[in-house]
């Protein structure tokens, strides 16, 4: 299949312009329901995932870090965060469903952002299956790289140097394999009654021979991702100047960073300043991905013949 990236992006921009509700407004609503609610909950209930990451980064073995996290997290807090996580996953699926329908000329409604809850069980199962497959491919890639590196160290004169390209190839193989699952959500949307494993297998079938094209399409947004990162860094810098001024005057950059990080409201302000940009980039990228899926679908019957 010959992918013309500018044409797919043009289709995405046309879909954004024709979207009802407007893509920018709908995405702001989506961000409010997902990232906004998550941040709000984190203000009042300790986030167990953040605590687990903090303990793991401190050098504790993962089983012990997990045990400490669970012992320090209340049952109600854990339940709330799990509930929010499930809601975010389903809302993300619903948003992708709205984007897919918009690229096909559909007339959307506000309630479309909640349409995924009718398939909540299958959506959660699909994410778990994809995560499990991805983890298994990660383990296979890592173990293969470790074995090959070990053999190379004993066989080759400078075997230790061969470990770098071996692990680089393993990482590339891992990402190449998980790219095959990138269309699983769209496949479930088109055939919700066929089951989760059908969606996964259908995604692998559609992406076979097209992973490189999809990767290049996503990388074409690199400049926009970089701009978003610069906006976030600039926002953080402004907050550091406002909240960490005394520390900066003393030359204590770490103190200024801690002053911003220790104030939850600063994270909310930073997100609110970044969201207008995200509300434009998110539908652009998601609808471009949906257009790529539509192109794969239109080509699929010809491939089967």
Summarize the structure.
The chain has helices spanning 5-18, 23-44, 48-57, 62-72, 75-103, 120-155, 159-179, 184-190, 196-207, 211-219, 222-243, 245-249, 253-261, 264-304. The protein is an all-alpha fold and 305 residues long.
Share of residues in helices: over 70%
Total number of strands = 0
Largest sheet: none
SSE pattern: HHHHHHHHHHHHHH
Radius of gyration: 22 Å
N→C terminal distance: 14 Å
Shape: globular
Unreliable sequence segments: none
Q: Would you tell me the overall average pLDDT?
A: 85
Instruction: Report the portion of residues in β strands.
Output: under 5%
- Tally of DSSP helical segments: 14
Query: What class, by secondary structure content?
Result: mainly alpha
Secondary structure: elements and pairs:
Elements: H1 5-18, H2 23-44, H3 48-57, H4 62-72, H5 75-103, H6 120-155, H7 159-179, H8 184-190, H9 196-207, H10 211-219, H11 222-243, H12 245-249, H13 253-261, H14 264-304
Would you write up a description of this structure?
The structure is a single chain. By secondary structure, the protein is mainly α. The chain has a domain of 95 residues. It contains 14 helices and no strands. α2 packs across α14. It is globular and about 60 Å long. The model has no long low-confidence stretch (mean pLDDT 85).
